Amino acid sequence: MKTILITGINGYLGSHLAKSLSTKFNIVGLEYSLKNLFRIKDLDYIVYSVENGVPEGLFTEQDIDIIIHAATFYGRTNEVVKTIANANLFIPFDLLDKAIANNCKLFINTDTVLDRFVSPYSLTKKHFQEWLFMRRKAIKVINMQLEHFYGPGCSKSNFITSMIDRLRNNENSIDLTLGDQKRDFIYISDVVSAYMTVLHQAENILDNYSLFQVSTKQVISIKDLMLFLKEITGSTTILNFGAHPYRENELMYSETDNTGLMDLGWKSKYKIQDGIKLTLSDA
Predict the structure, then answer these.
(1) Number of folded domains that form the chain
(2) How far apart are CA 71 and CA 92, in angstroms?
(3) Residue 68 belongs to what domain range?
């Protein structure tokens, strides 16, 4: 049985991947802190901390065949750029160097479809993606560009999760932009199945660097999404559209191309309305 390393294994995406892969791979995880691994408490795995960088013994103690880099730091609570860069650039740089030195065969990276200049998060993710492209001759790379994903148990900082919580709490009002941005939201099960597809087809993907966009191709405006969330939660909260300006370099229309994944046999199964209902039913 091959060994797969999942970074951010206790994160929302990482834990879902670990659960789906645990019957097919030996699971090794990386996490910043090992104090509360609540999402993976029932899994059989080995986990290392990156609080002081990638451990020197990681690759000598574990024969790692594949890496899924699912860890990320969004910087949603005004963290300094140095903290975001360390999580999204410098620790991954170290991991990539050690993976190449120890003849790891495949590095699957988690990227974003956002423009690089939307936020420090997106800028650091794009920087690392470019480093992966530059080093593609030393290790096979599959780069997964994800749309905004969501689902039951997602972090409270997730947009859909936070809006559901605020609406359920019947806050007096929520200040928003005009809400004309049209976005593609993808349910967590669809995201996991995309990773499973590229893992299954990895040997048939001949290029040493491949990029796949993980999306449903079904866009919805933020305004329509918020109105749907308000209706389905039965909230009395007032939605103040136009109270906030758009961010600089705001993505107004999410235009992605998921044909690469579909050519491998993957297909999105969940429409936004169905995914929201599942999220609410399991909350």
Answers:
(1) 1
(2) 9
(3) 1-146
